[in-house]
What we know:
globular; single chain; disordered C terminus; 2 domains; ten-stranded mixed beta sheet; Rossmann fold; alpha/beta; 10 strands
Amino acid sequence: MSKPTAAFIGTPARILGLVLLALALAGCGNLLASRSPAAVTYVLRPAFVVANDAEPDTPRAAQGSAVVVQLATVGVSPGYAGADILVTRPDRRLDVFAASRWPDELPRVVGDLALAALKTSGRLQAFDATMPIAATHTLRLDVRRFDAEYAVEGTRPTIHVVIDAVLARRRDREVIARFSSAAEVEATENRLAVIVAAFEKAVGEALLATTRQTEIALESIPARHQDATPTP
């Protein structure tokens, strides 16, 4: 009779021992995870962003009448929607730089920068998609590339930024123009901070080109078809 009693008493003890062991292993796992480096967040601030921040109240729209453009939510190619800083390896594999990220998902990052670039124009007024304004035109941007490409692993990468744009009239949704802006900037060193600086230059060039092409498209439209609204 003593053997069944011993087995009955021993079974909970063994279960308790297994539970304690599992908790100890989980604690070790947390300790190991805590040793992983925290992701560093990198901010892109092209020159036109700095200028806008320095003079937030300076009106940039032309006097008399201005085209009011509403920037739609930015689209991105597959694989580009997150906040990771992307890299294309020599074997064409899309990868990420470890422990590094943008401050937000790429559509939001590019959208904010695009709005700042559009505000440098003296030809138009620009607002984002959340603003309840009576826009005359809409601008849709799609990011096709936003990555650092290595031709040879370990060398200096080249930053590629490619942005497609569709400008349409708001009233009847007629497409006025389609165009693309692209920039390639080679990083001066194979260090992440320098690579991010190359990203900053490339996206700045691409978005300023987008702004200029938007202005050219609007200038090519006869005034009676522009739906321009008076500036206050």
